Amino acid sequence: MCVRERPRLAQSTLDHAFTPRRVRPARSCAAAGPPPRHGPEDLAKAGYVEEEYLVGGRANVYSWPAPGPAVVRTPNAPYTTRVLVRRPAKRSRFSGNVVVEMLNPSNLFDLNIGWALSHEQFMRDGNVWVGITAKPIAAAALKTFDPRRYGKLSFANPLPLGDPRNCTDIQTVVDPPELRSRSTEDGLIWDINSQVAAWLRSTAKSNPLAYGRKQRRRSLVEKVYGFGYSQTGGYLVDYINAIHPLVVKADGKPLYDGYIVGVAGGAFVGAVPINQCEPTPPVDDPRLRLQNVGVPVMRIMSQSDYLLGIASRRPDGDTPVDRFRHYEMAGAAHATPDELYYSAAPADIVEAGRSVPPASCNEGPRSRFPSSIHFDAAFRNLDLWVRDGLAPPHADPIAVENGARCSTSSATSSAACARRTSTCRPVPGSGAQPARRSASSPATRCRSTKRRSRRSTRRTARMCARSRATFASWSAIGSSPGRTARS
Fold first, then answer.
1. CA 475, 328, 261: angle at the middle one, nearest 5?
2. What is the value of pTM for the model shown?
3. Structural domain boundaries of the chain?
4. In whole angstroms, what is the distance from residue 396 CA to residue 436 CA?
């Protein structure tokens, strides 16, 4: 018989999104094997540990009929999902930053793309990464992989099959029709995303980022950043525009201090259905527009997707209520092989009843172009923006002609097409020039950052040194005319 921690009821800090009611380690038992293996990195060597939790509670299913916050469609639906936590083994190494990623289910199992892109920087800086199984189809893969370990996972539709509101024309993204189910509900993820953030900030006994006993117990979390990529980038747009305002209204402040929306915008997963009976808002709908969020937001598009996502372009914002940056990674494909290399092992994917995706590295959808350089810089700049008010650089988008990919047949067009996205200083001798310079350079920003409290002086010094190297690399790769990705 498996022995597990008794579930602990967590206190609620929100009216609309309670902290999880049940959190327990997903422990391995005699008849239950280990979780799927993720990536080749040696966490112990880096001073990190991975913990897996089954998180359960109640979530609302929402409707989003018009621009503005969502409204409750079906309240208090029970759920249980899986949450991964990768954190420093020693609490003294914890930076106070947590990146929460709704795991991408586009290949019908969980992909930890944010971790794959930026895990080296996360571990250098002492950040915590948290991944949430966000969709029923990914939970089903885990249950197939190990029914004993994951049998309690549930995204059950609160509406019975006989209820006319339980539609037969299921609205979802990517999932093949034969795998869609009226018995589950994609729309439970929104409160789950809120509740996980609330749990990490809480003093609950189950929170691995809280320390101390009784009245002296506190969470060491200082900042929480939301991340989504491709399909879950569209999820994040829904969350930012439909759910984030509800959190602020209910609690007086946000649960997430900033967001990075990766390769999702416009006609390319610019949003997703808020529940599986409502279609995605059209491309020109204001619900897809990221504006006046109240916390910093960055959107990053790749060269594979910027034309499909061109409707997501908007001017950068620097006002307190509208801090926004739009970046486009010239030369970058939609994804890299790292999203698979640092995902579940192929044998585990097969055991979960899924097909192992091809890497497609030959200038295909998964290119070896180092997109991680862009995302490392984005995470670093987002943190500086939130903590110190140091606005990140601006960058011109990839050039287009009449809304289409520009031609290199003429000298004028060739010069226009040679411009590459850059948010950094030129590298001496490289010939690379930034598209546009911000009011303060990375070096100036680092000098300003060093004026932070004594407690963070050493961490800040290391951060500044790495920041210069990151920005120099980005400039060399992102700004040099004629430079293309090698497969």
1. 115
2. 0.81
3. 22-479
4. 7
